[in-house]
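ok so I'm stuck.
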Amino acid sequence: MKFARIGLISGVQAEIDAFAPELARETEQVGALAVQRIAFEGREVAMVCAGIGKVAAATAASLLRLRYDADLLMVIGTAGWIGEGHGGLFLVEDAVQGDFGAQRESGLEHYTAGSWPIGPAQVRPFTPLEAASALPRTRIATSDLFIERSEERRGGKQC
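replied:
not stuck anymore, here's the structure
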């Protein structure tokens, strides 16, 4: 079976609690993380609330892959919205790290995560597995910075 073991990561516990709440859960404490396990449609699912931030998510992803042998890692939860349109469900087509770069007089010059912010800015988005889905596709800008000022949402440099 393709993707027999799935790892779900969220930043907020309520997001994990909302996934298949009717199913019985087994909880295992692994260090500071509580891993909940369920059987869902013939698959083993290990779920963890990592907390907010990319480092927390990467730690949880490593745990789910190495300890629970997850074939597929998914991030579930809610996200803010920048731009025109409305909310809903989306398939994330690619992702960029929106708060990494060099702060210059002209503003933040974005760089690809893992690169050194010297020289001309370059952003290469992460591209996930191709998925067959009727959901609308979107790009997500991941960030540990919450954008609350309208001028930054509208007029900032595009990721």
